[in-house]
């Protein structure tokens, strides 16, 4: 019996070493098969998405065609009716129709003018009418954005720890949670007992405004009264700007502001106090209403609605943070724009959605991105990103493994 011993020849040259290494890697991991499989799955998903888009496009075209046909039918029927009516009308009737048309045009012009006047008067009524003429002449309402910064809808809130103890407006006793915030709910009608009330002799109401503002005026409005103001209504109050978190340091905005019982109509019961011009340039975020006197009620004082009118402004201490945020936004938008122009696969997988673009305000740097954006990332875009990740990971793995094998052979 003959026994043959098999011998394994080891590669001697570098080319043979690289050849053996590549052959081993290909047989071991089947990289090409994996890549082809991923590409095959991607192509199938892409074909499904394209077919769905084609079907939706056909449906939209069909709906548009139906609408166009209905519009054409209505136009043709109107034209036919108009032609018949015109032929049957005599010369005197045509003159009468022309006269009626002229009258109709005049009425329409008058209605338009009246509507424009009503709109302008409605815009001017955003501030009390007795206060509009008191605004400094060097500033115009069209160039300023004046709003009620003490509105709960805009984001204002009561600072409970810096405000007086509250009681029920109806019974003077226990108050349900949340009722005290009616004083910040900016509304036209003020129902009875929907107010912020306190049993202290000189109550204080502290408010975190919705935004930093340059204050222009403050106002108070009580529930409807006729002839005699309710005895629980505030009569004299001050408003201060809190300079620290505990309002121990403060600056007076208005003082001795009086809610009067005469000189105001029943339908216009909001009464305003202007803030001095030298104070109106200070950014304000927290104010405190200090009610010094009411109309005779010794048990409680009730405030139904307070307002703080002002212009939006930025807090001085946050300007550096705003500049830093703007630099980060510009850097992010530049990176997104570069991806859109040079690396579309990465852009589609990460930054294609409209929320990302509009949140960073990138439409200036890349207007094409905003025109083509979608609300969510599609399945095909996700597959492109996954395929890119697999390719990059495989390439790095090959490079690292090759480096390790080469180091072993050289040793």
UniProtKB/TrEMBL annotation:
GO molecular function, one term: protein-membrane adaptor activity
Residues of the signal peptide: none
Pfam family, one: Sad1_UNC
GO annotations of cellular component type: meiotic nuclear membrane microtubule tethering complex
PROSITE patterns noted in UniProt: SUN
Transmembrane segments: 26-44, 385-406
Stored Gene3D superfamilies: Galactose-binding domain-like (2.60.120.260)
Cellular compartments annotated: Membrane
Residue ranges of coiled coil: 90-117
InterPro entries with a match to the protein in the record: SUN1-5, SUN_dom
Boundaries of every SUN domain copy: 132-313
Protein keywords: Coiled coil, Membrane, Transmembrane, Transmembrane helix
Keyword Transmembrane helix tagged: yes
PANTHER family associated with the record: SAD1/UNC-84-LIKE PROTEIN-RELATED (PTHR12911), SUN DOMAIN-CONTAINING PROTEIN 1 (PTHR12911:SF2)
Protein name per its UniProtKB record: SUN domain-containing protein
Species, as recorded: Caenorhabditis remanei (Caenorhabditis vulgaris)
């Amino acid at each position: 019996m003959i026994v043959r011993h098999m011998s394994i020849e080891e590669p001697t040259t570098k080319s043979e070493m690289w050849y053996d290494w590549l052959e081993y890697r290909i047989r071991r991991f089947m990289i090409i098969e994996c890549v082809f499989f991923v590409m095959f799955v991607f192509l199938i998903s892409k074909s499904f998405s394209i077919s769905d888009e084609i079907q939706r496009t056909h449906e939209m075209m069909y709906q548009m065609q139906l609408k166009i046909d209905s519009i054409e039918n209505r136009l043709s029927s109107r034209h036919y009716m108009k032609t018949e009516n015109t032929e049957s009308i005599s010369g005197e009737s045509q003159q009468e129709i022309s006269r009626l048309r002229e009258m109709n045009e005049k009425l329409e012009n008058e209605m338009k003018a009246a509507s424009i006047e009503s709109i302008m008067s409605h815009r001017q009524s955003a501030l009390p009418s007795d206060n509009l003429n008191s605004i400094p002449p060097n500033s115009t309402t069209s160039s300023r954005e004046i709003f009620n910064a003490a509105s709960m809808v805009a984001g204002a809130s009561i600072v409970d720890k810096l405000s007086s103890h509250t009681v029920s407006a109806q019974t003077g006793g226990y108050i349900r949670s949340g009722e005290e915030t009616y004083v910040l709910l900016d509304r036209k009608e003020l129902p009875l007992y929907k107010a912020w009330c306190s049993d202290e002799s000189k109550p204080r109401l502290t408010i975190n405004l919705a935004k930093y503002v340059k204050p222009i005026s403050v106002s108070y409005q009580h529930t409807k009264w006729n002839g005699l103001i309710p005895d629980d209504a505030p009569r004299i109050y001050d408003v201060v700007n809190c300079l620290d978190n505990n309002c121990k340091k403060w600056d007076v905005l208005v003082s001795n502001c009086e809610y009067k019982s005469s000189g105001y109509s029943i339908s216009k019961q909001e009464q305003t106090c202007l803030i001095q011009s030298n104070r109106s340039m200070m950014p304000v975020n927290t104010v405190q209403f200090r009610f010094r006197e009411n109309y005779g009620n010794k048990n409680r004082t009730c405030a139904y609605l307070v307002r703080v009118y002002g212009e939006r402004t930025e807090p001085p201490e946050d300007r550096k943070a705003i500049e830093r945020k703007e630099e980060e936004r510009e850097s992010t938008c530049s990176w997104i724009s570069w991806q859109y122009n040079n690396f579309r696969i990465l852009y589609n997988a990460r930054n294609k959605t409209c929320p990302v673009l509009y949140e960073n305000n990138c439409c200036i740097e890349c207007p094409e991105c905003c025109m083509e954006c979608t609300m969510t990332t599609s399945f095909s875009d996700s597959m492109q990103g996954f395929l890119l990740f697999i390719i990059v990971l495989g390439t790095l793995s090959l490079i690292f493994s090759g480096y390790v094998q080469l180091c072993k052979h050289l040793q």
